[in-house]
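Quick look at the format.
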Amino acid sequence: MAEEQEWANLLAEVFDKLTEKHASITYDFDDLEMKGKVEKNGKVVPTGTVSLKGRLTITAK
């Protein structure tokens, strides 16, 4: 399974659990860096880097 799909599935599961409980969750990021890559024709190709610094709160009501 592609890494992007794994992240999408994880986020969907978290959102479902939050919705069931009417809860919220907060993530604090201090210079989190995620480097993307894909494999194309047997070679690894970088797709870019995402850097996060700050707070993300997800609230379900």
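Next, a different chain entirely:
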Amino acid sequence: MGKKRGKRGHSSSSSSVGAQTSPIGTYDISTGTAEIEADPFRDGAYILHVNGVPSSHIVPGEPRELEFEYMRWIAAAVEAFAPGHRLTHLGGGACSLARYFADTWDDSKNTVVEFDAKLGELVREKFDIPRAPKVKIRAGEAREETEKFLPASRDVIIRDVFAGAVTPTPLTTVEFFQTAHRSLVPGGLYVANCGDHSDLRGAKAEIAGLKEVFGHVAVIADPPMLKGRRYGNIILIASDTELPSQHQEMTSRLLGGAVPAHYKGPAWTEKFATGASGRHDEDD
């Protein structure tokens, strides 16, 4: 899924409800198998694999430690542009981002939509995930659950859903973006992890689709990815609130990681996606 890792200094977070016994092992889940293994580079940290694919990294007692670079990019975007602290996470894994925001913002309410019900139960049992309303884990398919959301009922939607190495097509269409947009408050924020190949056709199609629904679209990625040199992650950012062409504070943060990334504003994305068309449900 194009997860990037990189070391950084430890946070001083005081969230301390850790697992009492080692979570290492292989577990049956609804869709197959989950494996929790020790991080070979850091004592006391773990990596969750779902059906053989690295899904999440978690450090019990340190919710602000985000090992995957793309998660740090998402956190930077949300902290820069979120209009409020009601967050919905489409795609759960070990709830790394939900834990992060629950600790970062005392008043945040995080709803995690996880397709695999047993996986949600497993990570709740093995890791220090705050209880509702801080973090609520809701079993269900992301598109179906999004269609159930009440209008203007959340401030931020974060999509990080993969089937293998790709996001399911129903979560990349104009109709899905319209559904997400409807559930956001005016000026709400939509953020998506787009895994794409060097041709960047997927990212361009998603940007084109988002532009049909939201007033402004920006991206975060590292330069080799933006130049189409390999498979990797592009973080898509959409809102009806104006997004800046540059963001100095966030840029400094993005450049400080092990994999330096760049923020590109709406003018850049307009040029980047020239000629691309958004996907529609009927295209299938």
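The CA atoms of residues 60 and 134 lie 17 Å apart.

See the schema section for token definitions.
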